[in-house]
Amino acid sequence: MDKAQAQIIHTLAQELTASTPKGRGELVQRAALALGKSVKTVYRLLKEAGWETGRKARSDAGQSAVDEKLALTVGGLVTRATRANGKRTLTIEGACRLLEAQGYGVKNAETGEVAMPSPKTISTAMRRLGCHPDQVARGKATGRQRSEHPNHVWEVDSSVCVLFYLPGSGGKKMRLMDERLYNIKKPGRLVEIGRQRVIRYVVVDHCSHALYVRYEQASGEDAAGVLTTLIDAMSDRGPRDPMHGVPRVIYMDKSGGNQSRLIRNFCATLGIDVQYHAAGSASATGSVEVAQNIVEREFESRLRFMEIGQLAQLQEAADKWRRHFNAHARHRRLGCSRNQAWLRITREQLRVAERDVLTAVAHWGEQERTVQPDYTIRVDTRSHGVQTYDLRVLGLHGVHVRDKVAVTLNPFNAPEIVVSKAMPDGTELRIHVQPMQRDDYGFDADAPVIGQEWGRQQSTPVERAVEKMEALATADGSASRPWEHIDAMADVREAPLHLRREGTQLETPAPEIPAMPLSRAQAAQKLRAMDAAPWEADARACMSFLRETYGDAIPEESLPRILEMLRNRMALRTLSPQSETARCLTFTPRQEARTCSA
């Protein structure tokens, strides 16, 4: 407000003080027209100038008829019905109607009637209580965090690039993704490109905001992609690209790849503390979110004017842009470039590991080895080949031959390994061991030379314990055998007498063993002894009958019935061939004789 406007307000205040309450409205309207402001603003300016209306404030000033529960219920319904893109599918008016139909509202103290306040009144109450959908949509307040030095904290994130592969006649080519065709509202289109999409991984140092970007072809983020990106970012890429080394902390979201055992084991071996922010709290890793936006605006915007045919071309262009950006873009908080800020790192703060060692750590992890009789173990370090390690020093701490020990590669001093062993008292024994040095013939360079030196393996605790046990076994020196002075039956005592109980005799029926069947020859012999007449009449016919009727297994209890059948058969043969009885009686294998019906 300038001097002239202030004079108008001062004059108006004097006029209002001298006028009656009925004429004040006209005076304020005239001043508002002269100032070009609203009546409400003029009253505010008058109040700031020290003028008061003189009216007594209402006894319920600052109070609302809408209670907190009703305001929160309306706000909760509207917020719940809001889509991720911010579109509200339920208005405040609609929520009020919905709740009014279910008996919600404000109860009149005098009449007891429940009525729903106007949407405007409820909206005012929601803003006062902080539950208005407009206020909720603004998100939570964010805090501030700091990192102590470069490589203290790295943040990692992935996103989908604007490029994807397009299969062509001359091989795969890359093309820009048309947002009009490929977006979340057209999932079918996204399915078409599937694993042809290009994923962008970004790593940013929280302190210096130096960044690293890597592209790969995949359908989405996975553990292998995250691991490769971390190895690339940690590797020394030359003096033009100073950011490298192993960070102390890595901060990222809870995606499946980031939480995989592969990533957690890799970081644990390197001594990296992995931290994850809660789902939906992308602001927690705000630095990498800003870096993603920078890459998309500053680098990927150029791809619309470039011809990118292969993923290697894309990565080469990204590396060139990244080196330029880290070296020249001035960071507002730092007041210098990102590289200049990162180069403030000290020798103690910079932990480095060779790329092949990082790769070996990623694929090797923790392994288990058995201590050999000469107290050595062999380990394939990958980066430095198969090495032999002398663990005699562990024998002095209770580790014995054939014990199992856990082995991990020391990434900061390969091929040194870290050997750990869980001890009986619950502690863990950890020791760093360098590989054995070999001479030109492959022998241990520290081993004693035959005939010139004498070396003996120092006794281990286990071996010393064995010696003490052997000494105790013949303590008095006169025993003819070890531990002779120990009564081997000292703990064996005679059992006491017990009262006997009468029992019930168990009656078990004798098992029935079926008789073995007779062979055909045995059956014939017994049948002939029983009655020789049928056999004397026609022995061949009798044997034929046994073979056709019973085969080679004939039950002994069936012999009387068989003999009767043989007698009948022989009697029929004496009948006249023209006899009706002889014609109708027949015999079939395994069947008795049957008579034809008349």
Record keyword descriptors for this entry.
about 600 residues, alpha+beta, 5 domains, four-stranded antiparallel beta sheet, 16 strands
Concise structural overview:
The protein is an alpha+beta fold. It is built from 20 helices and 16 strands. The chain has helices at residues 3-18, 24-35, 39-48, 68-80, 92-100, 119-129, 133-137, 187-193, 223-234, 261-269, 286-299, 311-328, 338-342, 355-364, 392-395, 461-473, 520-530, 533-550, 559-573, 580-584; strands at 106-107, 114-115, 153-168, 171-176, 197-205, 211-217, 249-252, 273-276, 330-331, 336-337, 367-370, 376-380, 386-390, 404-409, 417-422, 428-433.
Q: Describe it for me?
A:
With 598 residues, the protein is an alpha+beta fold. It folds into five domains: 3-48; 68-137, no CATH class; 153-342, 2-Layer Sandwich (Nucleotidyltransferase, domain 5); 365-433; 520-584. 36% of the residues lie in helices and 14% in strands. The chain has helices spanning 3-18, 24-35, 39-48, 68-80, 92-100, 119-129, 133-137, 187-193, 223-234, 261-269, 286-299, 311-328, 338-342, 355-364, 392-395, 461-473, 520-530, 533-550, 559-573, 580-584; strands spanning 106-107, 114-115, 153-168, 171-176, 197-205, 211-217, 249-252, 273-276, 330-331, 336-337, 367-370, 376-380, 386-390, 404-409, 417-422, 428-433. Strand 5 and strand 6 form a beta hairpin. Helix 4 (68-80) packs across helix 6 and helix 17 packs across helix 19. It starts with a helix and ends in a 14-residue tail after the last helix. Mean pLDDT is 78; it is low at 166-171, 178-194 and 576-598.
